[in-house]
C-alpha cells in the first residue's frame, strides 16, 4: 500500500483553492463503460471558498461548504456544484468579511463599528457556526448537510438548493453531534454528541432519530436520547468524530484529545478564540473504550483502557462469540492531528510538507477486541479467545481491562490509510473482510487503497500527480461476494491542460479502472459524502 510517488511540482496545492459554483450541470466526457445498473448521484461535501475578500481562512475545515453532485444515467454523466446558503456563508457574502468563527479562524467585530459597539459585540456570547462542509446524510425522506455543531442544513439532493437550517438543540440534549451517524436498514439514525449531565458535569449522549414516519411528519421531532456515557473529566469532553455500532451494541472511544470547555465559554468571547484554540491533550489519560446496549439503551459498566491515540474514523465493529471486535484508523499518541492541517501547512512546497508530516502522529490501522464476559478473579490473563486475532484484553488489579491491539496495517509517513469505507449496506456491524480507504502521502491524498482485514493483503490505485477523494462503495445488484461492486471517487489532476478533474469508477474487487467521467473544471478537496440511487 506504500506510495512510491513524490509530488515536487506541488499540484496538490490546487485542491486547497477557492472555486465558483456552477449555474447549471455540465456534461462530462466519459471513457470506458459505466455499468448499466449504476444510475444515481454521487453527493460530496467539502470546502469551496478559502477566503472572504482579503480575509483568509486558516484551517482546512474552515472553507465554506460546497456541495458537489455527479449524476449518472444511461452511461452519461453530468457534474454540478453549489455553495450551501448557511448563515455563515450568506452573512460573509453580504458583509464581505468573515462574520462567524470557524474551526481554526476567529471572526472579529465589524471594523466599521465604533469602539463601544465592537466591545459589546465581543460579549454577546458564542455564535456557533453552521458551516456544514463535512458530510451529508439522510433523515427520513430528506437529506442534511452537516458539520459537528448542533446545526444541520436540509438540502435538495437534486437541485442542491438550501432548504432550511435545523438546530438539534431544539429536540435533543446535545451541544453538537458527529458528522458520521449510523443508519439502520429501516432508516433509523443514531449519532453521538457531548452534553451536560448530572451536576453540570459533561457526558456523551447516544441519540436516536426514528425512520420515515407513515404520517409524513418530521422524524427529527421524535428524536430522543437513548443512552448516556459519563465523561472521564468533568469539564473537558473528548473530541468525537465517529463511533461504532454492532447489531446490539454501541462502541464509544474516549480519546485524550480534549475540549477545554471553560476556555471555550470564557476566552472565546473575550479574545476572539476559535475552536482549535480550545483543544488540549491529556498526556496521562490514555484511551478509554465504552460499551452500551442498543435495546434497551443501557451503559455497560466495564472499564476498558489502552495507550493514547487520536481517532477520527471507525472502520467497522461486530460481535463474535462473546466479544466485540473494533477496527479503527488510529494515530499514535495524544498530539492532536488537526494541528497539522492548517492550510499554511498543506499548501507548502513538497519538501516542507514532508517535514511537517514527519512530526505528526503516526497512523496505524488497529483491531481491538473487547470481552463481554469479565470476571475480576482472572487478573493477568488474556481474556480474548478468538483464534483469528492477536489482540489481547487483560484484567488489571484496579478492575480495568487493558487492551492491546492487533495491527492490521502500519506503514511509513508516506503511507497513511484514512477515510475508510466498507460495504456498509450489508456489513455494517457484522463480520466483514474488506475496507476501502484513501491513501495519504504526508497528508496529501494520492491513492485509493483496499485492505483485507483478515489476510492483511492490500491493493492500490494510483496515477502520477492525481489526487483522489474518499472512495465510496456501491454494491452491484446481483452481488454474491462482499466486494462485488464499484468504488466512486472524485480525482483531480491539476497538471493537465484539459479536463483536470474526473469521477473515477473502479472495480471494487481488484481496483482496476472501469470508467472515468472528466469535466473541464477544477474541483477542490472533498471530505465525505454518499451515493444516492
From TrEMBL:
One of its GO terms (molecular function) is retinol isomerase activity. Binds 1 Fe(2+) ion per subunit. It comes from the Eukaryota. Coiled coil: none annotated. GO terms for biological process: retinal metabolic process; zeaxanthin biosynthetic process. Keywords: Iron, Metal-binding. Pfam families: RPE65. The keyword Iron applies. Its cofactor is Fe(2+). Fe cation binds at residues 180, 241, 313, 528. Belongs to the carotenoid oxygenase family. This is Retinal Mueller cells isomerohydrolase-like. It comes from Sinocyclocheilus anshuiensis. The gene is LOC107700531.
Amino acid at each position: 500500500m506504500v506510495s512510491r510517488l513524490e509530488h515536487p511540482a506541488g499540484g496538490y496545492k490546487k485542491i486547497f483553492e477557492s472555486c465558483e459554483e456552477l449555474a447549471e450541470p455540465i456534461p462530462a466526457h466519459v471513457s470506458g463503460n459505466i455499468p448499466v445498473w449504476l444510475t444515481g448521484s454521487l453527493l460530496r461535501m467539502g470546502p469551496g471558498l478559502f477566503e472572504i475578500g482579503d480575509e483568509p481562512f486558516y484551517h482546512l475545515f474552515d472553507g465554506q461548504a460546497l456541495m458537489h453532485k455527479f449524476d449518472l444515467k444511461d452511461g452519461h454523466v453530468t457534474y454540478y456544484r453549489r455553495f450551501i446558503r448557511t448563515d455563515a456563508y450568506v452573512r460573509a457574502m453580504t458583509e464581505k468579511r468573515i462574520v462567524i468563527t470557524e474551526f481554526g479562524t476567529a471572526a472579529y467585530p465589524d471594523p466599521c463599528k465604533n469602539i463601544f459597539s465592537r466591545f459589546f459585540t465581543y460579549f454577546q456570547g458564542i455564535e456557533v457556526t453552521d458551516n456544514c462542509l463535512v458530510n451529508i446524510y439522510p433523515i427520513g425522506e430528506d437529506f442534511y448537510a452537516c458539520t459537528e455543531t448542533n446545526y444541520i442544513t436540509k438540502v435538495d439532493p437534486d437541485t442542491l438548493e438550501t432548504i432550511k437550517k435545523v438546530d438539534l438543540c431544539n429536540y435533543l440534549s446535545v451541544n453538537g453531534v458527529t458528522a458520521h451517524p449510523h443508519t439502520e436498514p429501516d432508516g433509523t439514525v443514531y449519532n453521538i454528541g457531548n452534553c451536560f449531565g448530572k451536576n453540570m458535569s459533561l457526558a456523551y449522549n447516544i441519540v436516536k432519530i426514528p425512520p420515515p414516519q407513515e404520517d409524513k411528519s418530521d422524524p427529527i421531532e421524535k428524536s430522543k436520547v437513548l443512552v448516556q456515557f459519563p465523561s472521564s473529566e468533568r469539564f473537558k469532553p473528548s473530541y468525537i468524530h465517529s463511533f461504532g455500532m454492532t447489531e446490539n451494541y454501541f462502541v464509544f472511544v474516549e480519546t485524550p484529545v480534549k475540549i477545554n470547555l471553560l476556555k471555550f465559554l470564557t476566552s472565546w468571547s473575550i479574545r476572539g478564540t476559535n475552536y482549535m484554540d480550545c483543544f488540549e491533550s491529556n498526556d496521562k489519560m490514555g484511551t478509554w473504550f465504552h460499551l452500551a446496549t442498543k435495546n434497551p439503551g443501557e451503559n455497560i459498566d466495564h472499564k476498558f483502557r489502552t495507550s493514547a491515540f487520536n481517532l477520527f474514523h471507525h472502520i467497522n465493529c461486530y460481535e463474535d462469540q462473546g466479544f466485540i471486535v473494533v477496527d479503527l484508523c488510529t494515530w499514535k499518541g495524544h498530539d492532536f492531528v488537526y494541528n497539522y492541517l492548517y492550510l499554511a501547512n498543506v499548501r507548502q512546497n513538497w519538501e516542507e510538507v514532508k517535514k511537517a508530516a514527519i512530526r505528526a502522529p503516526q497512523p496505524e490501522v488497529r483491531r481491538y477486541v473487547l470481552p463481554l464476559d469479565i470476571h475480576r478473579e482472572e487478573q493477568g490473563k488474556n481474556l480474548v479467545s478468538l483464534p483469528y486475532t492477536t489482540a489481547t484484553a487483560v484484567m488489571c488489579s484496579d478492575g480495568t481491562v487493558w487492551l492491546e491491539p492487533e495491527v492490521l496495517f502500519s506503514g511509513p509517513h508516506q503511507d497513511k490509510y484514512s477515510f475508510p469505507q466498507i460495504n456498509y449496506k450489508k456489513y455494517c456491524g457484522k463480520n466483514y473482510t474488506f475496507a476501502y480507504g484513501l491513501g495519504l502521502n504526508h497528508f496529501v491524498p494520492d491513492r485509493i487503497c483496499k485492505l483485507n482485514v483478515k489476510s492483511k493483503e492490500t491493493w492500490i490505485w494510483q496515477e502520477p500527480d492525481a489526487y483522489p477523494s474518499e472512495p465510496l462503495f456501491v454494491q452491484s445488484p446481483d452481488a454474491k461476494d462482499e466486494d462485488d461492486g464499484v468504488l466512486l471517487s472524485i480525482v483531480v489532476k491539476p497538471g493537465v491542460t484539459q479536463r483536470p478533474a474526473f469521477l473515477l469508477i473502479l472495480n471494487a474487487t481488484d481496483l482496476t479502472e472501469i470508467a472515468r467521467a472528466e469535466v473541464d473544471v477544477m474541483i477542490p478537496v472533498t471530505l465525505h459524502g454518499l451515493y444516492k440511487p
